[in-house]
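Students often ask what a holo structure prediction actually looks like on paper. The answer is less mysterious than it sounds. You provide the chain, you provide the ligand, and the output is a string of C-alpha cells encoding the 3D arrangement of the protein together with NDP.
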Amino acid sequence: MRVLVLGGGGQVGRALDARAGAMGHDVYAFPRDGLDATDEAMLRAALETTGAQALVNAAAYTAVDRAESEPEAAHALNADAPGMHARVAADLGLAYLHVSTDYVFAGDGRVPHKESDPCAPRSVYGSTKRAGEVAAWRAGGRVAILRTSWVFAPWGNNFVRTMLRLAAARPELRVVDDQRGGPTSALDVADAIFRMLPKLADPAEAEATGLFHFQGRPAVTWAAFADAILDEGAKHGHPRPPVVRIATVDYPTPAVRPANSVLDCARYARVFDAAPPDWRLALPGAVAGLLGESKA
Ligand code: NDP
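The corresponding C-alpha cells follow.
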C-alpha cells in the first residue's frame, strides 16, 4: 500500500520509513518541516500528490513533563489534529491509523489494561492523547488507534539513550522500580502498523477498526529495563554503574505517570494473527545504534 506518515522525523516515523520496504509498502514519511500535522490544507495536498491509500499519524507532542505547562500546544497536536486527520481520511475513503499511549490510563491495580477499560489520564499529555483518540473515532471512517508504551529505537529521544548517557557520567543510576510496563521497539510498532493497514483498509474486515493495544513483552519496571540496557551497553565496553532502585515518590516529576502501564494485547494478536514482540530481541540493535551514533 501507499502510506503517508505524519511525524516522519520521530522514533516511530523513522521506523515506518525504515521497515516499509521489508514489509512491502511504499511510505511517504513527512517530518514536521515537510508537513505540519495540524495543517489540513497541506495534508490534503500531500495525500493527493502521493496518491496515498492510508494515513498514519506518528506525530505527537511527546514531551510529557513540558506538556503540563504547555497544554494548548499539546492539545492542538494530540487532541485536535487526529480528529481532523480522521475526517480528511474518511472524506477521501482512506484508512487512518493513529498511534496512542498507555498514559490514557490512571495505572491503578496490577492487571493488564484491556482496550475496554475506563480511561482516567493523570497528565496533560495523557488527557490530550485520550481526547485525540475520541476525536479520531468520532470522525467515522476506517479508523484504528494503536496504543503502545515505553517506545525505544536506535534513534531519537528515548529511555535507552538517557540511561547510556547517564551511565557514562554517574557512579550509580537511581531508577524507579514501582512503575511497570512494556518496553516497545519502534521497529516492532512499525511492523505492527504495516500488518494492520491492509485489513484496516478493507471494509469487509469488520474487526480491524477501533482500539488495539500493542506492547513489548515481558513487562518490567524501569529499573529492570535500565539493568538490561546497561548490561547490553557493557558488551560494547560502555560504563556499567549499578542501578539503585527507588520509588516514584523519590523522583518527583511535573507529570504523574501510571504505576501500571501493562497492556493486554490479546485483541491485536487475535485480529492480526501476531504475537506481541519480545523487546529483549530489539534492545541490542537499539543500544548498538545509539552507541554507534555517539561515537560517529
Ligand atoms: P517522537 O517524539 O520521537 O516523535 C514525534 C514526532 O512528531 C517528532 O518528530 C516531532 O517533530 C513531530 N511533530 C511535532 N509537532 C509536529 C507537527 N505539528 N507536525 C508534524 N510533526 C510534528 O515520538 P514517538 O515516535 O516516540 O511517538 C510516536 C507516537 O507514539 C506518538 O503518538 C506518541 O504519543 C506515541 N507513544 C510514544 C511513546 C514513547 O515512549 N515515546 C509511548 C507510547 C506512545 P520534532 O522532533 O521536530 O518536534
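The mean pLDDT is 97.
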